Amino acid sequence: MSLFSGWRAAFRIARRDALRAKGRSALVVAMIALPVLGVTAADLTYRSAVPTVAEELTADLGAADARFTDQGMGPVRLEQMPDGILWGLPEDAPETLPEDERKSVDVPATFPKGSRYLTEQSVPASVTTRHGITDTRITELDIADPLLRGRVELTDGAYPKARNEMAATRAFIKASGLSVGDRVTVRGPGQTYTLTGAVELPAELAEESLFALPGAVIAPWQRAADKDEDKEILPPQTHVVEWLVQGPPGAGVSWPDVLAANEKGVVVRARQVVLDPPPDSEVPMAATMWGGESRSAELTAAAATVAAMAMLEIVLLAGPAFAVGARRSRRQLGLVGSCGGTRSQVRAVVLAGGAVLGGVGAVVGVGAGFALTALFRPMIEDFAGSRFGELTVRPWEILGIAVLGLVTGVLAALAPAIVAGRQSVLESLTGHRGVRRGSRVLPVVGSVVLASGVAVAVYGGVSGNTTLVAGGSVLAELGLLCCIPVIVGFLGRLGRRLPLTPRIALRDAARNRGRTAPAVAAVMAAVAGSVAIATYTSSSTAEKEYDHQPNLTAGTAALLTADPAQKAELPHARTAVEQNLPVSGAPARLGRVWAGSDCSVYYEEEDGCGSLELVKPTGKAHSCPLKGKGAKELALRISADEHKRLMNSPACMDENHTMISLGSDSNKIVVGDAALLTSYVKLDDPAAAKALAAGVPVLLNPAYAKDGEVTLKAVHRYSERDKDHASRPGTARTATERLKVYVAPDRFAATPSIRMITPQQTADRLGLRSEELGSIYTLTREPTDAEQQSVDAALEQAGKNAYVMTANSAERKDDEVILLILALFAGVVTLGAAAITTGLSKADAEADLTTLSAVGAPPGVRRSLSGFQCLVVALTGVLLGTAAGLVPAIALRLTDLREALADMRVDPMQSAYTPIVMPWGTIALLALVVPVLAGLLAAALTSSRLKLARRAG
Q1: Cα distance between residue 525 and residue 546, in whole Å
Q2: Residue 388: which of 380, 399, 396, 397 has the closest Cα?
Q3: pLDDT category, 3, cuts 50, 70, 90?
Q4: For residue 431, how many other CB atoms are within 10 A of its CB?
Q5: 844 near 488, Cβ under 8 Å?
Q6: DSSP conformation class of 775
Q7: φ, ψ of residue 125 in degrees (nearest 5)
Q8: Which helix (H) or strand (E) is 805 found in, with range?
Q9: H or E element: which one contains 452?
Q10: Strands 209-212 and 242-246, how do they pair?
Q11: What is the DSSP letter of 622?
Q12: Among 827, 824, 862, 843, which Cα is nearest to 942's?
């Protein structure tokens, strides 16, 4: 028999066996197709979502050939790079004139002859909505012109055709509650427009803005401001005018056209220049530029590592399934041997099964990847925030993914093929299995590899080498994989005191390590990757939250008056807030205090206002060692934990938290009562409230206190224009008072914008001036966009002199979504691996189950045994995967720590806090929910009825 004929027969047998065992074949195909599907969908999504240069130009220019921009330097020669983004003055350029002395540039005169153009100019504005008012951007641009196709697309209604019409982006319409046909008013000039259409910017789906015809908004607004004698209408704060140009037919805008425009002080971003840039010898600015470092080698290494781990994952998943087929087909394989087939031909039959099912899985995975990407394309685009230019397909990449699936199928069948080839014909025909002792060398090698991998990864983290981190992590995972058979062997010893069913499940897993270990390894590999990413993401999120400096205490809102002279409007403003925001309880009153003339009013005069400050005592306990002399020398000696402790000390906290958002000036002294302590400071201490009632101020930063007292220095200086104190202009009186205070615990030094709260009676006794500033509210939840718009509108009606501010939380982006996706991915792999192992155990344990039934075991034992077998595999794999996933996560955080320490030693006030936070939610889902779910599903899908079988032999 020729080689070709032998393999043809092997493929024929494999094809028939696959059709005969449809359930097992479908399982194998699914295990191969799922990763191929994921990689195919990821490749298509990445290639389609990352815009090409041509697509970026369309998003910027539409169908125009170029964008001309006057950079405001006057008609002077500029230099630019071909991309139209980088530009500057030549090295030999004369000194530029002041802005008010620069001449204007006639930009249209720089266009190529025969060009057509559109003007574009935007202005920030406050407009009315269905809920109230909101801030947005209005762009004057004729978006109906064909030059804008590809950049602005109509989705509903019609383009604006008259000067009293506008179009809105879909994101603006959703946030504002408006719809096509509604009217919107630009506050200030009071101009009203009709929304005629909804549009979207394919490159910026989340953009909330309005579009109007040129001259429809800015010019009338400016005229209204010029005519307003009371100056209540502020002039529009417009952005620069830009020109979208369509060059002469067939010519476009070339590089010589760009250079000619540069001579007049105009920068050009031209389509054909960006797509086909001139050589550096023709670019004057190129001589002063330098290229960046390429990271292609690192990216290639990362891609190869991911591909190798994905292949290993499929092999570990599909390998046991092929073992199921080999054992169920052992009689058929024995017949092949009894008819004269060699061991290599027996192996060929099993390998051909891997090739057949691998090929089918690859085709199904690629096809499903295309179908799901096309089906969920709108959802993916909305999540990414931009439309795909087109579904970009790289044929060689797709072919490589399909070949990867085929090769992986063959590799997954390799180990079962070797085992089948070693089996004697007699064992195959009788159904008996020989006993093979486990390797004693493999666990030792695995332990050494595991320890070496951990050491390499940690060293890479400490030294800042991410390549070593990746290599060491993979090495550690492979070492742990080699140790899994021994770990599985120890499971049998854990069941001595357990009930019958879990005891049998543990001993069966230990006895049949050949099928248990690969499934556990597959679960471990999937969970390790998910836990690694989840741990790093959780740690990075915790670091961002630690570094975030809030403007207000979380869960609060501040109603403040922009003009204290109009404080009579505050009662109406409070009503507006209480009716439109989710507030809880009564508001806390907030006041400001100062000495002499108010610097917020007389700031333009030299020495025309007073000052008020808390004087920080001298001494080590009151000064921040990370600021001033010796700070850098100290930073070189301390660790990240010691630096964190110093940064959290009251003295350094005051230097680091400098934000002022409550109108209390830099002294951060406010007038308040016990309600302010409980609602804003969150200091629920009866002694503090009693102190305020007795006229004793509450100091939130202990660094300013010495022996329970603070030093308050007030400079009473008055302006000649201050009518309230016209009898004392120019004379400055300095008063220094020692005040007994209630000193709050150290942690309250981080309270945003407040350093000390003084009672009104104390401010009056010290001769200080004060006034009501607003109120502090406690919120039950974060306000929605609609609630924010409605309260802004209500405050506008209440007098236009009050505004509301809520706490700004740290930006979290989509971290929760990422963690959920990772948990679901690992959960699916865990369920699949556990299902494969359960199927294999059922194939192996028929004799044991028959014996159990013969000795009187109830039928439900089959169900519970399958469930516990699934649970053992899933739980063991999850625990090992969690341990394996911590290695790269911790190593990468050590890399981040090294960079943070380097930054801190340059600037000692820079945070070096680099926490390692466990994603307990993800781990709990994987360690508790998924194994239990796997066990329940296995028990539910297992028949409790025993099938009669012919006795082998």
Answers
A1: 32
A2: 380
A3: very low
A4: 15
A5: no
A6: E
A7: -150, 160
A8: strand 802-806
A9: helix 441-463
A10: unpaired
A11: G
A12: 862
Q: What is the mean pLDDT of residues 607-616?
A: 84
Q: How do residues 476-528 score in pLDDT, each as one tens digit?
A: 888 888 888 888 888 878 777 788 888 888 887 887 776 677 778 777 877 88
Angle, in degrees to the nearest 10, between helices 441-463 and 860-906: 30
Give the whole-angstrom CA distance, residue 203 versus residue 368: 27
Compare 663 and 878 and report the one with higher pLDDT: 878
The interaxial angle of helices 466-491 and 860-906, nearest 10 deg, is 150
User: Mind giving me the DSSP string for 856-888?
Assistant: T--THHHHHHHHHHHHHHHHHHHHHHHHHHHHH
From the list 40, 131, 105, the residue with the least C-alpha distance to 242 is 105
Q: Which two tokens stand for residue 317?
A: 């998943």
Nearest to 512 by CA among 493, 482, 488: 488
| Phi (first) and psi of residue 411, to 5 degrees | -65, -35
- What's the mean pLDDT when you consider all of the chain? 81
Output the CA angle 811-820-582, nearest 5 degrees. Answer: 50
Q: Of residues 753 and 851, which shows the higher confidence score?
A: 753
* Cα atoms in the Cβ-side hemisphere of radius 13 Å centred on 103: 7
What band does 116 get if pLDDT is binned at 50, 70 and 90? very high
Beta-sheet strand order (sheet of 732-740): 611-615, 709-717, 732-740
Q: Is 79 left (phi over 0), alpha (psi -120 to 50) or beta?
A: beta
- Cβ-based neighbours of 472, under 8 Å, separated by 6 or more: 452, 453, 454, 455, 456, 457, 458, 459, 460, 887, 891
Give the torsion sign (CA, 57, 60, 61, 63).
positive
Predicted TM-score (pTM) of the model is: 0.75
- Stretch among 176-180, 185-189, 205-209, 352-356 having the lowest mean pLDDT: 352-356
Query: Could you say which DSSP state residue 677 is in?
Result: I
Yes or no: say if 938 and 870 are a contact pair by the CB < 8 Å rule.
yes
Cα–Cα distance measured from residue 663 to residue 678, given in angstroms and rounded to the nearest whole number: 20
713 three-class SS: strand
Q: Which amino acid is at 560?
A: L
Q: Identify residue 888 by its one-letter amino acid code.
A: P
**631's tokens:** 């700070």
C-alpha to C-alpha distance for 210 and 189, rounded to whole angstroms: 16
Q: How many helices (H) and strands (E) does the chain have?
A: 30, 23
User: For the chain, what is the largest distance between any 2 Cα atoms, rounded to a whole number of angstroms?
Assistant: 122
Rounded Cα gap, residues 60 and 942, in angstroms: 59
- Per the listing, tokens 């800015």 go with 218
DSSP 97: P
Question: Residue 559 in contact with residue 661, Cβ under 8 Å?
Answer: no
Q: How far is CA 381 from the centre of its chain?
A: 16
- Please return the burial class of 496, using the count of CB atoms within 10 Å of its CB with bins 0-12, 13-18 and 19+: exposed
* pLDDT bracket for residue 557 (50, 70, 90): very high
Other residues' Cβ atoms within 10 Å of the Cβ of residue 815: 16
| pLDDT the model gives residue 331 | 54
Strand (E) or helix (H) holding 125 = strand 116-128
β-pair partners for 779: 583
Separation of alpha carbons 694 and 686, rounded Å: 12
Can you tell me the distance from the alpha carbon of 660 to that of 663, in angstroms, rounded to the nearest whole number? 7
Closest to 725 (Cα-Cα) out of 836, 834, 597 = 597
Question: Once rounded to an integer, what is the mean pLDDT over residues 224-232?
Answer: 81
